[in-house]
């Protein structure tokens, strides 16, 4: 069977894009090379783009400014935050103008206000807490132990509790710091209850992004670098996903986890090119002119004139088939899959 190469750029199948930020558009303070140009081109072609972020501490205008600094087109209304998804959830449950404890940063305060609710600061006096009808919890650098105590006191009475996201860690230049999920666990362990969580990988943030885009789910693509949040979240929300290899996760993370992205991209630029799908030919997996054959200790790779990303696609298809093959011998299979994935990791690191 010949591989049929599509001629249209991948993005032609979509009207809207829900784009992740860190690891896709920028990495910390640095722009991801080529990402801004690709986004400009996508917008010029009429694709609608919103940026969905689990970061609830910053206000959308600040996030948009950082995107614009990286050279990509963005205004505040193009940013959909987990704080906004949390506030929207509470606005559905509460009367307009209800008081909500804002256990978080400026992003949570602004989102509540924009949703027609009244944010209450945890440092308010006991009298001020009486009107509070719910708690919105998001990451806030200035939060104090006494703020968590105030939240616990309210939540112990059974008030609705929404958390913006449950990321266990917050990546900082020096390593991993506790993320909002760690602070959620802190309260949850005392209260023996858990909040409703709206950020990725839970569907509400993506649903809000779809609403903002106004594009049908079937014509909308989620793009992100993290399998357990961006890609799993898209799956939960019922939209296609593109996993971009400019961020943290590597092929070995894909074979070790359960997420299945619709597409695997080297960079955002690949959205503007036809997408070569991998297929099987006997023991060999093909993608474009790349040929990858599983062996007992990994993968035999013939790159031909193909790019690294085609090798990675063919390799991942081979490894996932091997991993999920019930006929294979489990012990040896796991080892060869891990060795093959590490070979793909190294291939990407050498680019
Ligand atoms: Mg990311």
TrEMBL record:
Record's signal peptide: none
Domain of life of the source: Bacteria
InterPro entries registered for this protein in UniProt: HAD-like_sf, HAD-SF_hydro_IIA, HAD_sf
Protein name as it appears in the record: Haloacid dehalogenase
